[in-house]
Amino acid sequence: MQLKRVEFELSSPSLEGCPRPILPEFAFIGRSNVGKSSLLNMLAARKGLAFVSSTPGHTKLINHYRVDNAWYLVDLPGYGYAKVAREDRSKFSAFVADYLMGRETLSLVFLLIDSRHEPQKIDLEFVDWLADEEVPFVLVFTKADSVSKTRLAQHMELFRAEMALRFEQTPEIFATSAKSGDGRGALLQLIASIIQEKR
Ligand code: GDP
């Protein structure tokens, strides 16, 4: 699948403020600095396509992009800002929770995980929350180029083991690199296949 037209539609501070739910949606979330902007630009395959989340004020909003009039790419606020008090770190905004629980057209969440680290508590807590709320998600390891193949495999395996503790059928796990473009085809193919199923 090629993305021909990626148009910013709107930024919203609430579920109610999101665009009319008429197209399937694919949402991207992860802790801040996980490489989300880079991944989105890599998926769109356009250098410098202005994903508004990189501009002040938009990082804490739900950002909708309409892709080829067929689906919405949704850029969600990151969680785990380092500056936030420790007890707040694992929390994410209530309106993001509203969106994830209440968005009828949400097809899949791409939960981004930094390849450089072993499973982090904050990410596992978010996984647990998604599982409790029965929000469908897959795991996307970012920055795969920044660690050795052995280390990457190790970290993916540790995560897979954590998933096996929680799910009968573990969510799919992808390795991606915004630098090399690795994983782009697999993610777009997954999106295309889900859209196809819904038709
Ligand atoms: P965001 O805060 O989640 O949107 O993360 P960014 O996309 O701004 O990336 C955070 C940092 O990670 C930046 O310094 C990027 O250059 C770096 N980064 C992002 N993706 C990759 C990648 O695929 N490979 C490498 N080596 N670095 C990356």
Helix and strand topology:
Layout: E1 6-12, E2 25-30, H1 36-44, E3 62-67, E4 71-75, H2 86-89, H3 94-102, E5 106-114, H4 121-132, E6 137-142, H5 149-166, E7 173-175, H6 184-198
Bound molecules: guanosine-5'-diphosphate (GDP).
How would you sum up this structure in a few lines?
Helix content is 34%, strand content 21%.
CATH architecture call? 3-Layer(aba) Sandwich
CATH topology type: Rossmann fold
C-alpha geometry: globular
The average pLDDT is: 89
Bound small molecules, deduplicated: guanosine-5'-diphosphate
Taken together, the total number of domains comes to 1
Give the H and E element order: EEHEEHHEHEHEH
CATH class category label: Alpha Beta
Strand content: 15-25%
Q: What count of helical segments does DSSP give?
A: 6
Helix proportion of residues, in percent?
A: 25-40%
Describe this structure in words.
- The protein has a single domain (6-198), classed as Rossmann fold, CATH 3.40.50.
- It has helices at 36-44, 86-89, 94-102, 121-132, 149-166, 184-198, and strands spanning 6-12, 25-30, 62-67, 71-75, 106-114, 137-142, 173-175.
- It has a seven-stranded mixed beta sheet with strand order 1-3-4-2-5-6-7, sandwiched between helices.
- A hairpin with a 3-residue loop joins strand 3 (62-67) and strand 4.
- The protein is globular, with a radius of gyration of 16 Å.
- 34% of the residues lie in helices and 21% in strands.
- It contains six helices and seven strands; from the N terminus they run ββαββααβαβαβα.
- The model has no long low-confidence stretch (mean pLDDT 89).
- It has 199 residues and is an alpha/beta fold.
- Bound molecules: guanosine-5'-diphosphate.
- Guanosine-5'-diphosphate binds at residues 32-38, 78, 142-143, 145-146, 177-179.
